[in-house]
Give the backbone structure.
Amino acid sequence: MFLLVSCGLFFPYSGSPDSPRPKRVFLQSSTCSCKPQRAPLRHSVKQLQYKHTTRTFHNLQGQVESRDSGLWINSFDYTAIQHITPHIPEINDSIRTRCREDRPFCGYPWFLPVKFLSKKNWYLPASEVSPSSPLEFSLLSREETSWGTVKMTFSAKGPSHMSLYLMPHRGANLSTWSFGDGTPQFDLSGEYFVFYSHGLNAPTWTFWFEIQPPRDPDPSGPEGMISVAISSHYFFGEDQRTAQLEEILRRFPTWSFPSSWVSTYDMYRY
């Protein structure tokens, strides 16, 4: 059976009502990610996550260093995008992208801290997204403590779901923060992920952390002592869709099951 699937003699998906084997597709209208997962062939589902996103990167002086927009696609199953390309030719391996190790979570708006599950990503250039309620993010204060750390306090106001990414630079150490019991918990790559959600009419989200600056800054690494990024995820309402995302959705085959939303990604160096 493996050989039949590998050589293309057995197609794993079907849109037949009698024996459906759909390919699930998650589309985010702010960063397009494709996250396919493998299922038994009899009930095979093609899972892709698409996010239509606008990414903004700031330098140490707070100035915009670069900005782009696109559909970010990452694959979690063995067929990747090979069965999607015939239906949507612009989604192909020519737009394959790589992880930027100098940016928190590769520089993309991961909804959950699962980047280690997906090593193949694609980024299709697209128009800029303009949510009616854009994310508001700012550094409220920065102070040096008597015990040698730097305490930074931030505020964020945005949609009901946001992801915060913290990446201390080489030699720096995140010592404490305002989350949980105060002890930072990092993922396998040494980065930190905080997921935040709220109900209606929520107050501004305020948080802080303390970081120990590096004794000897790494000249080959990014400037400053930490990179902070935040993503907004628009799961419902008028900001959930874009015209370009809707156009892509209409072109998916019947054996796919697309799901989508809009996201943004903003990164800062400190």
Summary: Residues 136-231 form a domain with the Immunoglobulin-like fold (CATH 2.60.40.690). Residues 1-6, 28-43 have pLDDT under 50 and may be disordered. The first helix runs from residue 2 to 6.
